[in-house]
Model the fold of this input.
Amino acid sequence: MFKKILIANRGEIACRVIKTAKKMGIQTVAIYSDADKDALHVKMADEAVHIGPPPANQSYIVIDKVMDAIRQTGAEAVHPGYGFLSENKLFAEALEKEGVAFIGPPAGAIESMGDKITSKKLAQEAGVSTVPGYMGLIADADEAVKISNEVGYPVMLKASAGGGGKGMRIAWNDQEAREGFQSSKNEAASSFGDDRIFIEKFVTQPRHIEIQVLADKHGNTIYLNERECSIQRRNQKVVEEAPSPFLDEATRKAMGEQSCALVAAVDYCSAGTVEFIVDGEKNFYFLEMNTRLQVEHPVTELITGIDLVEQMIRVAYGEKLKIKQSDVGINGWAIENRLYAEDPYRNFLPSIGRLTRYRPPAEKAKKDYAVRNDTGVYEGGEISMYYDPMIAKLCTWAPTREDAIERMRVALDSFELEGIGHNLPFLAAVMDHERFISGNITTAFIEEEYPEGFEGVTLDSSSERKIAAACAAMYRVAEIRRARVSGRINNHKRKVGKDWVVTLQDASYAVTIKADDKGSTITFEDGEKMRVSSKWLPGQKLAKLKVNGEKLVLKVEPISAGYNVRSRGAEVKVRLRSPRNAELAALMPEKLPPDTSKMLLCPMPGLIVKVDVAEGDEVQEGQALCTVEAMKMENVLRAEKKGKVTKINAAAGDNLAVDDVIMEFE
Done:
């Protein structure tokens, strides 16, 4: 077996590979840019080599720099993770020339399958059903518009060397095809060093289901069931699960066998994924093959018990697969939620900064459930603007889908994260959504269910009362401590009041608290009683309680006369006042937010790529105003209404912070 491997990647996937390598007794080498000198993967590896400035095209995807790191450390093999150089045939060829093993497929398979245009042609030749489209090279935006009209809108513009949602756009008309073509080319060149674009028909109401394959160098190929990846935003997966709630055994078998046939046709070895669009009648169409480990591989590992990274290493070493197709089963259900540094309340725009608090739920592996968190960050670490905004992949496993979802709900509520914007509230909302719970999901789920963007979760009356009762009990404990410290309670001669008014959302509840050694009974003015018990103490930011015997987990942040609380996707301010103070608070005027309606504010920290208008221009609703790049993605900012530009405060090349004023209107 290899004695030392280098991981040509960063973040959570580098950490993930290091874990398996250590388990196998293999030494590891990390590479890092200036921005990653204190990164977790650097700390976890046995050795680390600096390879350049923060931008990936000056560090992580510069083949010569990675090869130098290999020579310096004497690594015998390289695991590329995903993204970066994982599907770059030139990198695989360079390793082969150097006599270093590539923990992935041969260069020929990368060239034929890693390229989306070539792979689709080969799939057609192999008899695999494919989506209609144009596989040739597209010269410019005019040709893209012409081809789009021939294929028929809507169309998908995709980077030939792409992956992870980068370099992908959906166009519904000529203008979007023209703009999407240029943005896709720019993102593809920046992320992959290859700006080729192809176009295919966008199938409406599709499900995105993929087959995990594994092949050795001796002609043995198996498939490890499927993953459902239909919850996507901007073509990037957000929630994945295995197995799919939609497939039946016959369709699973057909997709798996077809995937294995395609793998055999190109002499593929290592782990790989064949992606399909599946319609409502269970017809499936080949999309592409990813010649690498997938981001969502943990859910496959959780239902099969197979360590895919270990198998990749063993295949690269030349070992035969010891697993037969008959050995692959489906044990329970697994769900993965991708935790991103992005603000769901600002249309999921990227967020950067320091993680002032990072306390994921404890990882567990028990007979009836499991919690897994693949991550590449730590408390006090920084989320950089230079790389993908993923913070962690939170996974749960349980015997049934219903149980796996419930475990995920608790895990999300228990995840403590502060310092940056993040999508925890949105993920929690999805886990509680009726469509997700039923399994009736498509790749259009987010745009259909949140057409105006995510605006948070409104608690129903029952949940509202549970949180009101929980906060009342917690506030009583905190008030007792404050009273003792201040001297208001002296030898229990004076007591904290038992009558309180709890306000949250648009509701107000008058409650009475009666406490004993085992908890508190909260009585509402209409007579409803709730029993609350907890070991929570003031200062703790996570409260684990039981309300009427049911578990409730609250993320708690103290504010004046109450708490900011996060639970099940809802983020609410809970105020607790004495009856008299509540009367006075009701008389206070509401503070109005500042008027920014005549300004274009930068919605995220990022780089101004271009400004499309000039001072004095009349703009129409929906017109492109400027483009901001952040975390490898271009974001076109458009006019919300008709107006006239009076002042432009930023130019191409400027780095802006959140809410910096880009331009002003009349």
Summary: The radius of gyration is 27 Å. The first strand starts at residue 4 and ends at 7.
